[in-house]
Design a protein that fits this description.
The chain has nine helices and eight strands. The mean pLDDT is about 95. The protein has about 270 residues and is α/β, with parallel strands linked by helices. An eight-stranded mixed sheet has the order 1-2-4-3-5-6-7-8, with helices on both faces. Helix 2 crosses helix 4. The chain has two domains: about 210 residues, Rossmann fold, CATH 3.40.50; about 50 residues, no CATH class. The relative contact order is 0.12.
Length: about 270
């Protein structure tokens, strides 16, 4: 299918952010739209492909690059540098668990590789306080992106996020009452005060095992149920975190296929 694709710019709190878009043939101004929220590695070839997949399924998609305030990325977060960091993490899964494991894995690299990858990882993995502030700013940017998509009257919009973007998908649902639905792929659970603000239907896709995230999902589901918010939870036994990413070593074909089909069914129910 030949899609209409490219890049646009939108503003949030005085900063301009680029965003990749994809539209199917015969797109109309009021057609349903999806906010595609990237992993920690920004809008890369994988996220562009995800946006294209959903566009081919009949949605206009917009994927803001949260790593590019003002329109450009810092040197540590350029695509080649992030590709190298992502490759390092794929080759050393334990490095996701914390700074000591990352340092141990980095020590095995030649100096010419170690220094730039370490600098990139330092930008990606920040202390909890800094991470909370970063996610809060990202949420503001994404709410502005929802406004961009909602500028067409009566259009329905959902968010679909992956990993860090999965966490942000839930945070946008809490922050933006105009959002019509939200899908979370293996994102961390929001804090209780954010959960209490969610009103739109939600769907979640989680790996098992994924000890940092999945054990917290039942309490999340109970909280949403108590406030009358539908939450379709799907857990994929034997799949690992980031199982939908077909460029990563964690990719799981069966889980990915099932999750994509369930997501399309959920979106059809809530955006029609």
């Amino acid at each position: 299918m030949k899609l209409d694709t490219g890049w646009v710019t939108f503003a949030s709190a005085g900063e301009n952010f680029p965003a990749y878009f994809a539209r199917p043939p015969q797109a109309t101004p009021g057609m349903p739209a999806l906010l595609i929220i990237h992993e920690a590695f920004g809008v890369d070839a994988y996220i562009e492909d995800v946006a294209n997949r959903f566009a081919a399924a009949g949605y206009e998609t917009l994927a803001p690059d949260l790593l590019s305030p003002g329109g450009t990325r810092p040197p540590e977060l350029t695509r080649p540098r992030l590709d190298a960091a992502s490759g390092f993490l794929n080759a050393n899964p334990a490095a996701w668990s914390g700074a000591p494991a990352r340092e141990a894995a980095l020590a095995n690299l030649p100096e010419g590789q170690r220094t730039p990858i370490a600098a990139t990882l330092a930008k990606l993995f920040t202390p909890d306080e800094a991470r909370a502030a970063r996610l809060a700013r990202y949420t503001e940017v994404l709410v502005a992106a929802v406004g961009q998509l909602k500028s067409t009257a009566s259009r329905k919009v959902a968010s679909v996020g992956f990993c860090m973007g999965g966490a942000l998908s839930a945070l946008v649902a809490a922050a933006e009452p105009a959002l019509d639905a939200a899908v979370v792929f293996y994102g961390t659970v929001p804090p209780p005060e954010k959960i209490a603000a969610i009103r739109c239907p939600m769907q979640g896709h989680y790996a098992d095992p994924d000890p940092r995230i999945t054990p917290h999902v039942p309490a999340f589901a109970e909280a949403l149920k108590a406030q009358g918010v539908p939450f379709d939870v799907n857990v994929y036994a034997g799949a690992r975190h980031a199982f939908f990413n077909d460029t990563a070593g964690s990719y799981a074909l069966d889980a990915s296929r099932a999750a994509f089909a369930r997501t399309l069914s959920f979106l059809l129910r809530h955006l029609t």
